[in-house]
Amino acid sequence: MYVAPLCFLYHEPYKLYQIFREMYVRFFFRLHSISSHPSGIVSLCLLFETLLQTYLPQLFYHLREIGAQPLRISFKWMVRAFSGYLATDQLLLLWDRILGYNSLEILAVLAAAVFAFRAVNLMEVTSLAAAEVRIRFTAMGWK
């Protein structure tokens, strides 16, 4: 899931492996282990929920009330660093920002931004399944 987008940039297997290894060791491993590090998945989940509660409180509580916890929807995006959910060019731009800011926190910010972008649609849903359909990605971006 992390290697496929990099294949568009590096055609030599050795160079591809080097870049993938550096990205994984520097950033992505934090998405697969429980720790208190600010870029760890636990901190990203907390940041995501804090952003939603602060800036979209009605949406946050509406989704919680119908049993569609926002974190259940966004967790898979953050764990995969949006790989498989964004078009390749969008994903590489996102990862470029991760490198630029030297932080995975942008994943939580983007996940919250997706909810903000779809807030009107999400306020109409009555179940987790409906929320997942309304917020779904396609291979070419948003649907």
Automatic annotation (TrEMBL):
InterPro entries (UniProt xref): Rab-GAP-TBC_dom, Rab-GAP_TBC_sf, TBC1D19
Superkingdom assignment: Eukaryota
* Limits of the Rab-GAP TBC domain: 1-102
Q: Name one Pfam family in it.
A: RabGAP-TBC
- Matches recorded under PANTHER family: TBC1 DOMAIN FAMILY MEMBER 19 (PTHR16110)
> Can you name this protein?
Rab-GAP TBC domain-containing protein
Species this protein is from: Myodes glareolus (Bank vole)
